[in-house]
Request: fold
Amino acid sequence: MDKALYIAMTGAIHNMRSQQGHANNLANVNTTGFKSDWMQARSMPVFGDYYPSRAYALSERPATNVEQGGMIETGRDLDVAVAGKGWIAVQAPDGTEAYTRAGELQIDVNGILRTGNGLAVLGNGGPVAIPPADSITIGDDGTISVVGVGQLPEEIAVIDRVKLVNPEADQMEKGLDGLMHPRPETDVENFPAAAEVRLYSGYLESSNVNAVEEMTSILALSRQFEMQVKVMRSADANTEAAARLLQMS
Reply:
């Protein structure tokens, strides 16, 4: 009975963890540029000093769904969406380079170009700094052009270029900060800029989360959790019955 009890117990624990993953996806259904996480379950042998005669259930996040979300037209000059494959390079909270598809950009009081959640956007030589300007334009190749305060419209100047990268999906993984980072096994600290990546100015990319699928998965996992609890109760009842038989003998 201990085998059934162990499998059911670990299954219930990892059902809860899978629910957390799907709930996080569902909570970000309206988050700009969010990429949903896939969840999967499998059985794993329990290794130790002896032959692995026990198994346990395991839920894991094998990868992130990097499919493009829908395009939302905003008409705002600082809103950009990556066209097809590619990522925007930003400075993560720990100071390292990371990557996102969230293109709701803004300029802080110091003139630094930042994403909607406050991360500095990286250019050719670090965070992009915007001088005081009457107008700002972000080209489809990431080039940032401005018309200075009091200058004529034709006196446009290119000040920097947003760093855009295009690594393979299996070279990246989502970190706990919600940003994409190079996988440790790639031995790559920062991905190089990719000239082929293009931006749509005046657009934002919506989340690629399918709310119906996520809700269905959460309900299915709830049913599985109930089933695992029933198996644990049955195993406990069988153990008690076996103990009574031993007492009678």
Residues 211-248 form the longest helix (38 residues).
